[in-house]
Amino acid sequence: MKKITHILFLLSLLTGCSSPRPTNLGLVEKGNQKLLRKCPDSPNCINSHYSDDKDHYLEPLKYETSKEEAKKLLLRILKNTSNVQVVTEEANYIHAEFTSSLFKFVDDVEFNLHKEGLIHFRSASRLGYSDLGANKKRMSQISFRFYQNDM
Q1: CB 134, CB 142: distance < 8 Å
Q2: How many domains does the chain have?
Q3: CA distance 83 to 97
Q4: How confident is the model at residue 14, as a pLDDT?
Q5: How many whole angstroms separate alpha carbon 92 and alpha carbon 79?
Q6: Is residue 89 a part of any domain in this protein?
Q7: In terms of C-beta density within 10 A (0-12 exposed, 13-18 middle, 19 or more buried), how is residue 98 classed?
Q8: In this model, does residue 119 exceed pLDDT 90?
Q9: Structure confidence by residue, pLDDT tens digits, 83-92
Q10: How far is C-alpha 43 from the chain's CA centre?
Q11: How far apart (Å, rounded) are the C-alpha atoms in residues 79 and 32?
């Protein structure tokens, strides 16, 4: 009986790590701009919109091509990355879900495409307090691939 309890616990742990899609995703109006939301105080989020938040800030992606070409490259990178599902694709906004292989944790990654040569992003874990740097590492890898015109 004890073994069955342990097995059921492990199964619930492995399948119970996903959570419903947050309802507070997307762009928000700030004056005459549309921005991604700020990161919470927890260290499981990275964001390029708010340079004053040093704990969560990374530089946005910069491009010199057209916005359409930059978006195509970004989508190609996302679609050629394992465990990623592009959920929303709009003219100036992309939302993708990254799912970890082992525990099936889901991180929400959003991109805000600006016509002035910038792609801002927000990458946040749905669960937990710390992500052990996973979101920062992910966005650094995407940035590297973007600048290498990878894929």
Answers
A1: no
A2: 1
A3: 8
A4: 46
A5: 18
A6: yes
A7: buried
A8: yes
A9: 999 999 999 9
A10: 14
A11: 32
Q: Which of 145, 116, 140 is nearest to 48 (CA)?
A: 140
Provide the domain limits for residue 40: 31-147
Cα-based distances in Å from 58 to 6, 138, 143:
41, 11, 10
Produce one character per residue of 62-95: b if its CB has 16 or more CB atoms within 10 Å, e if not.
ebeeebeebbebbbebbeeeeebeeeeeeeebbb
Whole-prediction pTM: 0.84
Residue 145 DSSP code: H
| CATH code, domain carrying 136 | 3.30.310.80
CB 121, CB 47: distance < 8 Å: yes
Measured on CA atoms in the order 47, 49, 51, 53, is the torsion positive or negative? Answer: negative
